[in-house]
Protein 1
Amino acid sequence: MSPNPEWALTSGAFDRLLAILDEDRDAAAVAYGQLRQRVVGLLRWWGATDPDGLADLTLDRAARKLDEGASVARGDFGAYVRGVARMVFFEAARQPRPVGLVGEPLVESAAAEQAPLDCLDDCLAMLDAGDRRLVLRYYDGRDHSTERRQLARDMGITPTALRLRTHRLRIRLEGCVSSCLKRK
Amino acid sequence: MTEAGLQAYLLGKLTEPEAEQLEARLLEDDDLFSQMETAEDDLFDAFARGTLDAGDRERFLERFGADHQRRRFAEAFVARASSRKVVPFVQRRWVELAAAAGLVIAVGAYLLPRGTVTDQASTATRSTPVTAAPAAPITPSVSLALGSSRATGAPAKVTLDRAAARVDFRIRLNPADKYPAYAAQIRSRSDLIIWGDVVQPSTEGGDLIVHATVPVDRLPPGTYEIAVRGGANAAALDDLGFVTIEVSRPQ
């Protein structure tokens, strides 16, 4: 799948990428993980079928270009990586891929419709009561901005901290439900 | 950036230069990226709730239609999260006993004269000479307390005798939830509303109680959720909480 299978990430290239992210190597490693997650997000929003694999290709290629002498100002690094990701995405999109059922409604039996609810109930039960109340309230479908600001005030935390916490809970629930459905 | 702006990006409604600029920022701005992730969650939920207009639904399906796993999760999640007012609830002694002992509440197993409909009334009636009036099923009372999640604890087990015509669910509310109007609903596990009505509050032994008197033929064996709603009037009710029951019939 790699557009350049002959090229492997070298430690020198990786070090150059880390150096751009942060002067401190440990902090740079953390920043690398965060950057990778964001590239995965971008690729997902573009509709990539393998966002994780393409994110790795993107960062490998960005590192290679830096190692080959590309110059990127610190403030332009986001745009630079975005450009590389876009190229990787287009190259992957040109590869033939299986025709899926994109856009088709989910048509399932009654039993199959019930299974995600049952799994979700089980997964919600595994959260502690406070987290369970929090995630259900945060995503309860009411006026988001007002309700969520109020919720953050009630909890004495920032809206950003609340958003991160509830999103993590949701990801955890999604993973739990997915595993549960595979077992059924 | 507003949530509408973020969702416009996710639905492909921004121009290419706008999208490109936003994407570069997304790679550098933690806060903006987390906002976008939440906007994406909300978009899946909005699709599952059916609140997107036709154009946005089409755009959503073009971009995210193949993500069956997340769509399926969102459908289940909105069924649990929608319009729930989550209320912390202090468990009282009888609730604790019920939970700890897996109490089976057997109801309707006996017949009493017509008009004997409550525990208090039955005491009075028993001291009165019984007339020859034909027997009718009692409406027994089952005490329950609302929780904040359907998944909280084990369901209360309710055994309904076939002779019982109705069952009176005596539901204790959070004392802070005093409203002029209340309604109750019973939903099946697949979220079908199988019974619903306005219910009246009363204060019994210092507790705030509503009674939901439900025909037993609406409750074949199975698991149900009772939701109680309250508000300023019948047109403006919010969920106050819910309790799960497991109904069975004696063999």
Protein 2
Amino acid sequence: MKIVVCVSHVPDTATKVKIGDNGKTIDPKDVTYVVNPYDEFAIEEALKTRDAVGGEVVVISLGTDANKESIRKALAMGADSGILLKSDSYRDSLSVAKALAAEIKNQEAQLVFFGKQSVDYDAGIVGQLTAELLGFNSVSVVVDFKLEGEKITAEREIEGGREVIETSIPCVITAQKGLNEPRYASLKGIMAAKKKTIEDKEAAAAENYTEILTMSKPPAKSPGKILGEDASAVPELVKLLREEAKVI
Amino acid sequence: MDFNHTEEQNLIRETVREFAEKEIKPVAKELDEKAEFSYELTSRMGELGLFGMNISPDYGGQGMDTLSYIIAVEEIARIDGSHAATLAAHNSLGIGPIYYYGTEEQKKEILPKLCTGQGLWAFGLTEPNAGSDSRGTKTSAELKEGNWVINGSKIFITNGATEITLGATVQAVTGVVDGKKEYSTIIVAQETEGFKAIEMHGKMMWRASNTAELFFDNCTVPEENLLGERGHGSRIMLHTLDNGRLSIAAMGLGCAQGAYEAALEYAKQREQFGRPITKFQAISFKLADMATKIELARNLLYKACWLKDNDKPFAKEAAMSKLYCSEIAKEVADAAVQIHGGYGLMKEFDVERFYRDQRLLQIGEGTSEIQRLVISRYIGC
């Protein structure tokens, strides 16, 4: 079976992000990019599924040449080949999903894994949009996955418990932390990845339906106030909570 | 000049860093405290492919360049000296000599077992009375009826007495030719009768690594256990040490990097006189000096690796790297403790361990004094 994993190339969560001069994008200078952390669960589940049922894992990433770094990491973890869908301007979630869906259709893949969201824009909908465009079943934010024949059993965490869902391929799964423990790219894997191919393709054109107007940092937290250290400070505290903070 | 790393080198750094932070860091303090060697982590390092990085896949290795290996040692040392020691000693001293000097049969027999993390190999050079003066070796091997009969002892041998140590490469005096001692290297399997490896306790540093004394009492091995040619012992040892110097340098660099990062992080958070102590020149200049020394050390060491990877002479630069990286590890770890103040003296803080671990680096695999001797000879003194 052909399995596709869609991978985003995102700023490392440890990076301090600065907003660019135009106020609409981040300043990419000094930013380290990594594989989107949720996508690592998606890659691992794709590899495990391939190892269990056979077939191949194709990694698809949409973006610029820089994304090849993340594709290469997925190949070093064990994926079979990669495709870079070249696109150098900003795309909203639907536009990304359209380009991905076109390539997934082209690949005739039956099972597609995504991370539940990318930690850059955090929209968390590209997986489901892609499923809808392809007419595939989909289960989102999955913490357990089983494939038997064509039948899929997936579990999701819900308030106070777990939800078990049965569906079948073709299907899109979006991965949540806890689904598995992603493997390290072993040194053998890194050497083997050198020989695997990454194909460059133009991403299918699609218009944006949304536009980012501005980006701004959250307001700086103001320093706390210490009113006193014993019970005599309580009346003043109550007064300020009521009148200044307006929380009681 | 091209300072770029290859895509593989970047991936190796990323993957080894992640491994060290997730798997080693959470247990490093406890293993150090208990002076416990971790078989689990050694096995995991093997699975990752960290053993045999520079040797051909024909023998179970990864066939990577020197710089890739050095980056891996640096990244492990950034988190913990003990595990970097296990890794560096096994690759440079355990696997190295067999790979470079072994017969096809010796290589096929021993190396694959050493690349998995399920078997370790030691290198016996230092003796109680032969440290810097490695020609003072007293351990002897006499050829009798097709066997080497070995007598003597070795000391401070890394990986020598673990449960998974499979043997050691031992330097011994095999005769006297024209009034000069003849040195050879001989392979001794761990279970050989007359060979005993005993773990040494009470170390100040690398407490989670294994250090042993090796004893040979009429230890008898077949003649074909000779590694390389008879009489080539010194040459083999010196070549092995040239390579080993690069990995000790990488341990110094990694140790300095880890201590520096901890100090910078601490200094940003620690407030005195109403502001973070990074805002005081006394502290910020210290950190600036630490960062500069690390940058210098890294450039020197990577250049030595580049020379080796391009088949150019690198022994002088290897000695310089070993000297400089281990010296700045001392300076940086010392400054890191100073920045931490009283907390830097407590085991709860990693810099306390870095401060102890760095102290070996100016002593092991050729003291700083011996490195200066080597360098001074290369520059014509």
